[in-house]
């Protein structure tokens, strides 16, 4: 059959054509005496117990110690969790415990990448007492607790099959693959004492996020940050095919990861076709972990004693064990252990098929769990207890209770003064002359940059900026006056720079997440169009966040301990409305939509209309906890509409009438003009001004929305306006002209269910763009002042006879201006400098 | 000043601690005699001309050959395009032309990764006559044509600063970085004669997409596919910092890329701190390209002659040239060439600042362009013409005119028979007994898999499936009966497998794009929750697509040549509604929203409600051109509602009344129930059935929407229903209860502007999930039959007095059932097998 895949045994790949000299890259260690007999007893027993429990979690609901012959009713109705990766994870966990029990001063955090391997981690966590600590009622250290753990796994209310916020010690949602490595690096930053161990699956290592993240050690300053120890776990197979590392021989693996910059130690020695004749993999891993710790200390000591190494080669382990190691060897002639057939559940019909059930029983009994866990009391064997360390990985405070709030300066210290809406108030019923010209101008990002400079100054060890190579382009360069970019192998780097720039949004997001969940605060500024690259990472983070609020140990409403971490914070700029010069590929506001779909309790989207509002907003988000904050602003100089005091009030409410731009303060309007976003609000104000000249009879109210969620129907979001507030603000006159920065469908979706929505017109980015002038971008997307004004006249005509009389004439005039603009552009486009409103007729 | 970055000269990184033996990995070549004097003259002159034109494009609008002293008015008002990367690109282009002119049988496609380097490519394309070929009116091979090219660049209507669909020969939107490499690999598949050359920028190489894609050669069968030659262009800097490769010395680079599996040749020899004492980089690149071609042919010949090499090491070049090579050396003591200061525009004030203008003039004059292009006629120097190959990279048919439509089998051959809605019609006014039980059941994915098997059979060289390791889990395993997974280093691979599985959505997307834009058709099946990983890649592809329709050579409505390629096709399954077992991280329908925001002309979203509709849809999308198609379906067995004939009609219309499930065929309904998506439609049908039992007086109409865009307001999408059709179908009775698979906001946004939207209730995925039973997933997200029924009764009560009388009682009963379910789950959850509707009370 052409489709039949041969069930490979453990990989024995073709030898590569790399020269043997590559083998010089391998770290070799003497294994003799690496493990005392007593330690060997401990690790063997801990692992046996952990493997047994993991297997039981996948299969059993009764008879959980397999003391009786297995009956169909003992087997779960649905078998979940992936056995394939579990024995490797318990092996690592066991030996890390040995390492930590020998080195009690080491604080280790474990991040686990491989998918659906939760049974292996949960079983280890139960053995070390961490599950009981956080779930004393459900999972005490008794037979009953163990029964609940096994029986409840992957059923409603029990632990799921992948690592998540319910898992003690975890700082990472483990369902979607690829993010563990960068997260582990983020955790190590600014924690000089932390050993951040991360297990990367070989399937997971195929992802872009992981492939990029191997470089992250280049951002680690050995003086001020901790260390990351990556363990690439190669068992050779994904669901039903080899992994890429599974096809690579040792020469290739050594070459690749040495090229990334690591000192690589390959740990192998088990399995039918092992290349290590000694085969003592326990001694091997024990010695390798000790070596890694020694290497790390040595690199750190050198650097901390003023003798930093150039390009230190941080240690890394490649652990090769068979897939489903220790599980059933084969079934009906099909190889299980060491093949992809044990990736998920190796005996899927164990409930109904007697043969499979017998194989399962033999397998489970082979662990002799009764020697390890007292079947009467649940007491653990002494050898197991000996290697449970004092500082357990499942209970490290850094993972659940470690937030240091930022010491935040007053944003008004850098606010833009000189805004005088009172003066404008006086002139506004008059000719509106010079309104815009008199206003101070400031780039929102310049203002935010000045504020961030102060944040860095006051928080030199607990605040970081992760950015994909656009900090200066995004006008946040003031931050570089206080700190600098961190890039260790650059000979000019001074270390401990607060800014990491790398052209991988995946790395930025992973670092931010690891940094934030271990108690610090970060900001991720980016070009608007490219934040969508990490859409799913944000979603996964938000899922972790949501669950964290519901568990008893992460500071949520029902928690008995823990702290809610700082929010993660995105700052989008270089928005489509000012990407006229970089062209169509740089014009994309889609990330807003990703945030809108997150749980309302977490999600926040702010579009501050000017620099003072941007300042108020950045202060607010850096101070907040447990949210996913997105700020969208402009990097170009734009008018400052509100004084610092006005901005503060406006941002608190999230929206408000801009009296200075409205007719008689916005009372009794014929039409309401709404701006959501910097440039589109500018056009709304310009439209109001234009209308006052063309149709003085038309009464406008100008509203700005800075907190997008206020428009959603009452109750849909904590910030949503009440129905009464909404009606007061918007449902006035003949209609509402809404000029929105993102896709119109987003606001349209939010408005669903609001009264009066049939009288709204919403325009936003229409996916029209090119290299052109800024104003042409607005024209092409129908959010220019002319488009706003035309719609305004149309709406106002419904309620104002004077306006209706002039409607055709005014609309004709506005359409003429649009055309004139387009013609001018066609003729003179090549000569235009491209300022914002070139030339307004 | 702490923030001041030292303006690095060309990288001279600290030597790594890797052993010297790594240098054995380097490919060494004799350079003597690599370049004849005549060839040297040609490449020098071609490159000089290309560099001059590229620089002129960035700076000049008049005096484009710098024949006069530069005046302020000669300089563009806004300077765009990045000079930094251009000279490296022209260098590569020049030498590829030399290679092709020496080897006229070679068909080479060039994919260019580095951002904003378009001037270097466009200038080369103009010199070889490819721009004139496709834009004969705007850019003829005359001085006028050249003037238009230079003057129009990065102005409205001119070429933008990055590669896009307007660029002849391009198959890739070059604004967002990271995708070039995978795209180039996709193009090479099944084109045994193609040489797919790809330039990867060193900044770009930091991205996850690129980092993962280096492994792609492992999917290339040297017998049936062409070759990819990657050129990593290291100029050391991003916008304002070193790149990661810029900090790596040759040992590290060799180690890394050899580890990926390449035979690496480092091409260097220019710049102040060159490590190549000979410094003859022209000879070096010429020899290196010849070597690469020879290597490729040798690998291919061996394989094609039945002697395939195990793990062939395909060639790869690492080209090191200074940033802004050949540009001004310094300005005011600041180093320009070889530093990040020449990343973008090296003389930004050339228009206003006389000193800068003078530096610019000297620089431009240094190229002596008058020796290369006749200032009177525009005629090119003979030496330049000598290396313009017969098969020019800008005119390769594969890049714009090569679609081979699939030979598509009749989907009805694998359709599910035995659906008899006539029988049901007869019983429907009665007790509805056994309605569901009598229906045939089929997994949509199983059906699609069976069809795809036939597609593969009939199209063994023009159809491919790219999948992130979930083909079998997604129940598409029938495809493996006709073909197999391709993974070259796996000793069991037979070559030419139609299925590539790799756990990188980025690679899958890149391969699909390259494969499709060179004339073939592909399918990308995926777990629903993880397709969002490539959201921005899809957006960038769609931007390319949109522009391709507007240029004169890609088969669009205004084109004089070219063909519109096949659509790109996504198949989402393992949806949230059936990811109860994998838990919260696997529950996410957000990719639909990404497609909704694309241009309406391109975007298609289908949610076929059963296997026959899924078959009709897959046939349709595989036959379509120029679209981005998303199909969302279930992999679990579900009822087949429509006969093949009914399904065909239903899919053509995109929506329709399901008479068999409605009261009296859906006439005069009190309420309209709408299902969009498989499981949620199942619940709608169940709700209708339930209502008929509980409130026989209530008249329901059941509507299914299979083509999501039909609900959008008239004119918003080619498939949107007219207002009249919409009103006929939906606006009946007391309201519309819409049960949607995705986020409710999406449908709510689409409905904006439709009449009667205030009478709609829309529910969808609420971001609520866990490991639980399938039915509990529906309950948690308020899309269960009970939720539908409650809302239906509420709406119907507005128009039907009989219903109103029983409203409280029926709603009470339905709420009781919800609670009973929840209680049952709490008590028995651990014992439930988790079938779809366990247990319905």
UniProtKB/TrEMBL annotation, chains A, B:
Region ranges (Disordered): 422-445
InterPro entries the record matches: THDP-binding, Transketo_C/PFOR_II, Xul5P/Fru6P_PKetolase, Xul5P/Fru6P_PKetolase_C, Xul5P/Fru6P_PKetolase_CS, Xul5P/Fru6P_PKetolase_N, Xul5P/Fru6P_PKetolase_ThDP_BS
Cofactors, names only: thiamine diphosphate
Xref: PROSITE patterns: PHOSPHOKETOLASE_1 (PS60002), PHOSPHOKETOLASE_2 (PS60003)
Gene Ontology terms for molecular function: aldehyde-lyase activity
Gene Ontology terms describing biological process: carbohydrate metabolic process
Sorted UniProt keywords: Lyase, Thiamine pyrophosphate
Domain (Xylulose 5-phosphate/Fructose 6-phosphate phosphoketolase C-terminal): residue spans on this chain: 635-838
Compositionally skewed regions (Basic and acidic residues) per UniProt: 428-441
Span of domain Xylulose 5-phosphate/Fructose 6-phosphate phosphoketolase N-terminal: 36-402
Similarity comment: Belongs to the XFP family.
Name of the featured protein: D-xylulose 5-phosphate/D-fructose 6-phosphate phosphoketolase
């Amino acid at each position: 059959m052409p489709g039949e895949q041969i069930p490979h045994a453990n990989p024995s790949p073709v030898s590569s054509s790399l020269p043997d000299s590559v083998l010089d890259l391998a770290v070799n260690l003497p294994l003799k005496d690496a493990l005392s007999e007593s330690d060997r007893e401990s690790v063997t027993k801990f692992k046996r117990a952990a493997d047994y429990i993991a297997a039981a979690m996948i299969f059993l609901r009764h008879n959980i110690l397999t003391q009786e012959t297995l009956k169909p009713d003992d087997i779960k109705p649905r078998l979940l969790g992936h056995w394939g990766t579990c024995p490797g994870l318990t092996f690592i966990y066991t030996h890390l415990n040995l390492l930590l029990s020998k080195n009690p001063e080491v604080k280790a955090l474990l991040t686990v990448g491989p998918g659906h391997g939760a049974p292996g981690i949960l079983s280890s966590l139960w053995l070390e007492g961490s599950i009981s600590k956080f779930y004393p009622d459900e999972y005490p250290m008794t037979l009953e607790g163990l029964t609940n753990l096994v029986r409840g796994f992957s059923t409603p209310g029990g632990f799921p099959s992948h690592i998540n916020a319910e898992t003690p010690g975890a700082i990472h949602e483990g369902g979607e693959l690829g993010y563990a490595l960068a997260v582990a690096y983020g955790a190590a930053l600014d924690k000089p004492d932390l050993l951040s161990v991360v297990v990367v699956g070989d399937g997971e290592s195929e992802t872009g996020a992981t492939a990029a993240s191997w470089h992250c050690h280049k951002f680690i300053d050995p003086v001020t940050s901790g260390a990351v120890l990556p363990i690439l776990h190669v068992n050779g197979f994904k669901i039903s095919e080899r992994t890429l590392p599974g096809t690579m021989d040792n020469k290739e693996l050594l070459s690749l990861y040495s090229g990334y910059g690591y000192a690589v130690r390959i740990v192998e020695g088990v399995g039918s076709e092992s290349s290590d004749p000694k085969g003592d993999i326990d001694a091997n891993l024990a010695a390798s972990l000790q070596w890694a710790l020694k290497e790390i200390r040595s690199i750190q000591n050198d650097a901390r004693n003023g003798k930093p190494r150039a390009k230190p080669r941080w240690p890394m382990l490649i652990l090769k064990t068979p897939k489903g190691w220790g599980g059933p060897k084969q079934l009906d002639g099909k190889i299980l252990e060491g093949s992809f057939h044990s990736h998920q559940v190796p005996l899927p019909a164990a409930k109904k098929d007697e043969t499979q059930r017998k194989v399962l029983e033999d397998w489970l009994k082979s662990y002799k769990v009764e020697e390890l866990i007292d079947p009467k009391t649940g007491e653990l064997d002494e050898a197991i207890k000996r290697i449970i360390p004092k500082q357990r990985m499942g209970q490290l405070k850094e993972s659940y209770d470690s937030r240091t709030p930022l010491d935040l300066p007053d944003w008004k210290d850098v606010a833009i003064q000189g805004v005088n809406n009172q003066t404008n108030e006086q002139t506004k019923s008059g000719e509106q002359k010079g309104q815009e010209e008199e206003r101070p101008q400031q780039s929102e990002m310049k203002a935010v940059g000045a504020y961030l400079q102060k944040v860095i100054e006051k928080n030199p060890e607990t605040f970081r900026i992760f950015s994909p190579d656009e900090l200066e382009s995004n006008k946040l360069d003031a931050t570089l006056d206080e700190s600098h970019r961190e890039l260790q192998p650059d000979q000019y780097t001074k270390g401990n720079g607060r800014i990491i720039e790398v052209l991988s949004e995946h790395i930025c997001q992973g670092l931010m997440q690891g940094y934030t969940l271990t108690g610090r605060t970060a900001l991720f500024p980016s070009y608007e169009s490219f934040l969508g690259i990490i859409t799913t990472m944000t979603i996964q983070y938000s899922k972790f966040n949501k669950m964290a609020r519901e568990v008893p140990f992460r500071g949520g409403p029902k928690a008995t301990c823990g702290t809610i971490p700082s929010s993660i914070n995105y700052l989008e700029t270089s928005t489509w409305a000012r990407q006229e010069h970089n062209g169509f590929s740089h014009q994309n506001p889609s990330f807003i939509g990703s945030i809108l779909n997150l749980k309302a309790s977490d999600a926040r989207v702010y579009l501050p209309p000017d620099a003072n509002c941007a300042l108020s907003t950045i202060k607010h988000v850096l101070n907040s906890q447990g949210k996913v904050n997105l700020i969208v602003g402009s990097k170009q100089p734009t008018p400052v509409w509100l004084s610092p005091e006005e901005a503060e009030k406006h941002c608190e409410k999230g929206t408000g009438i801009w009296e200075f731009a409205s007719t008689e303060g916005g009372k009794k309007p014929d039409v309401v003009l709404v701006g959501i976003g910097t440039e589109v609000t500018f056009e709304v104000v310009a439209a109001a001004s234009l209308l006052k000249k063309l149709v003085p009879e038309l009464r406008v109210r100008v509203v700005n929305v800075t907190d997008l969620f206020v428009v959603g129907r009452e109750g849909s979001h904590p910030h949503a306006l009440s129905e009464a507030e909404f009606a007061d603000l918007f449902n006035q006159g003949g209609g509402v002209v809404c000029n929105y920065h993102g896709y119109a469908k987003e606001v349209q979706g939010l408005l669903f269910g609001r009264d009066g929505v049939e009288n709204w017109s919403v325009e936003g980015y229409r996916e029209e763009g090119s290299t052109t002038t800024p104003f042409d971008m607005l024209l092409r997307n129908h959010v220019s002042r002319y488009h706003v004004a035309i719609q305004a006249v149309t709406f106002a005509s419904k309620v104002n006879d004077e306006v209706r009389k002039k409607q055709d004439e005014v609309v004709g005039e506005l359409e003429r201006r649009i055309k004139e603009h387009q013609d001018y552009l066609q003729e003179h486009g090549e000569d235009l400098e491209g300022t914002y409103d070139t030339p307004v007729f």
